[in-house]
Here is the input.
Amino acid sequence: MNVLGIDPGREKTGVAVVASDGHVHVRAIVETGRLKAEIEPLILQWMITRIALGNSTSSKAARAEIEGLFQQRQWENVHIEWVDEKNSTLEARVLYFEEYPPRGWRKWMPFSSQMPPVPVDDFAAVVVARRLMFGQPEEKSKGKL
Here is the structure.
């Protein structure tokens, strides 16, 4: 089973498709205004039945957008679940540096003092998805969408 992780933001949103073993199939940063158009093919291609939605910035607007897509497509087997985003950006930085280890003199610096050169919203979406899969979501949605 694959989970779609979403880390919503005002201008950009991280999305990730994560397998049940934690393996990442897809990781991307999309314009928040294009979220619905960007996730629809992911839901279809990866047979998503659970969406892990981060619960902070712009999460209510993102949820409304996603629910509108569900109603439009008449999907009844896809569920959205809120996930606590606390410290997800810090965890995303760790994931970034695992994937792209520092080189040269930077490899001798502690990770805590380094900043990734690019946004890590896509890695934060991985964190959100894994929290749903391996931890407890903050609040489950009621009923089918």
In short: The two ends are 18 Å apart (CA to CA).
